[in-house]
Model the fold of this input.
Amino acid sequence: MLNFTIISQRNRQKYIHKNYAYVLHGKKSDGKILFWRCDRKIIKCPGRIWTTVEGEFIKMITEHQCTPSKNHIELKKLKNFIKQQVRETTETPKQILQKASLEFGIKNMDKYVTEKQIQNQRRKYKWQLKSNIFIGINLK
Ligand SMILES: [Zn+2]
Done:
């Protein structure tokens, strides 16, 4: 499961292989093989791969028309890391930025994520939690 580290905004699993990011696209009828397609939606890249359900790379099905981007993937990892910190810790935006900066070896974090963005994320998350509780009460 090494490569299933990235979760996209809509909680869809992502698979990382050789600096390409893939979104889950389907499953073989025997349930043993997962189909992945390149996540570059904007240019509709045809890149496709297969993996086992355990996340082991099997083969490339269709070649990419996009160029691999380490930055693209690192940025997603960074954003996911921050999202996780927002949800699972009570640290201040400043502390979260410091932690992320150490974790990813980035010095100028402001270029990627600002304290204000983290604040907004946390506000949004708290609001989501609250509204989930309301829904829970209504259901009972
Ligand atoms: Zn591609």
About this structure: The mean pLDDT is 83. The pocket of zinc ion is lined by residues 20, 38, 40, 45, 47, 64, 66 (CB under 6 Å). Residues 93 and 115 are 5 Å apart (CA to CA).
